[in-house]
Amino acid sequence: MEFKLPVAKETRDQWLSIQSHTFLDWCNHWLKKRDIEISDLAHDFSNGLNLIHLVEILSGSSVGRYIKNPRFKSQQIDNIRTAINFIEKTWHIECIGLSPMDIMEGNHKQVLGLIFLLVNKISKKARSEAKLEEAENDIEEEKEALPTVKEVDDSGPFPESEPSAPDQVKSPEITDQSQSVAATPSSVDTKPLPVE
Prior knowledge:
Elements: H1 9-31, H2 41-44, H3 49-59, H4 73-91, H5 100-104, H6 108-145
Helix pairs in contact: 1-6, 3-4
């Protein structure tokens, strides 16, 4: 048995009104890029054209073919279905329970659910892009804070008096003959190894 707090119808209606107004402002913010303004979420997406414009603006790409002057319900439903399929494909959102027929008929909850999916996806994308930009800025700041490396002098680390090539290095001279032992046949032990 679930426990639900009683919510007055006035409170619920007020919350839906606030949510609708907020989503309407969000949609108009994006749609103004194509000089489109909507006044009612439930009815202004009913033929699918404004929804198609919205998803094209948000994605930066075209949904493909759609009916530009939908006169019949079947054409309006096709446009809405085109937009929903594009949303699912582009942003990998599963639009389970969203019915193109309900959106065409102006079902307020269905339209709010669809807009909520878009708001959620776009805000996540914006947050991840902001985090990426912040990380890139941090890297640039760290690079600037690192000390600069001076160019290495080609003459090398040794003063001019020392040889610079390995073939010019002199080996130390041995003055005492006892330090020098040459491997001659007489100095090598030639005893046979014992066989077991």
